[in-house]
Write a structure and sequence with these properties.
By secondary structure, the chain is of the alpha+beta class. It has 4 helices and 6 strands; from the N terminus they run E-E-H-H-E-E-E-E-H-H. Helix 1 crosses helix 3.
Length: 128
């Protein structure tokens, strides 16, 4: 069954798995950036949003390409990208739930522990 969320005044139905994954990743990005940001204002610049899904070319125009590969050639198409930007934009509309925050912090701790283990094994390998 598709997940249903309140999105401002509308009900958002996440009936595409790729879009849903992008949506949840976008919310995670929004709250991570907000936590790490030292900006006092709650501003979302258009250029910040474009950086989520596009890459500027030499002339400063944003393109939906990544390292000369069209993003629409990805197996899941553009659904994850659109979900990402919708999820990111939902951050100011809907506060992070306790469950989302716990999951985000657990993922961060797992990454830190994984990075620590990798660093320790490299140091051990260099010492021998």
């Amino acid at each position: 069954m598709a997940e249903e969320l309140q999105w401002g005044q509308a009900r958002l139905i996440l009936n595409l798995e790729a879009f849903a994954r992008g949506y949840h990743q976008g919310r995670k990005y929004y709250f991570e950036e907000r936590e790490l940001s030292e900006r006092a204002c709650q501003c979302l610049a258009a250029s910040d949003l474009l950086w989520l899904i596009a890459v500027p070319d030499e002339s400063g125009h944003y393109q939906l390409v990544d390292e000369s590969r069209l993003l629409t050639e990805l197996p899941e198409g553009i659904a994850p990208m659109l979900g990402l930007i919708v999820g990111y934009l939902s951050g100011p509309l809907q506060p992070e739930s306790a469950e989302e925050r716990q999951q985000r912090q657990a993922e961060f701790q797992a990454l830190r522990q994984g990075a620590g283990s990798l660093s320790e094994s490299r140091q051990a390998g260099a010492a021998s």
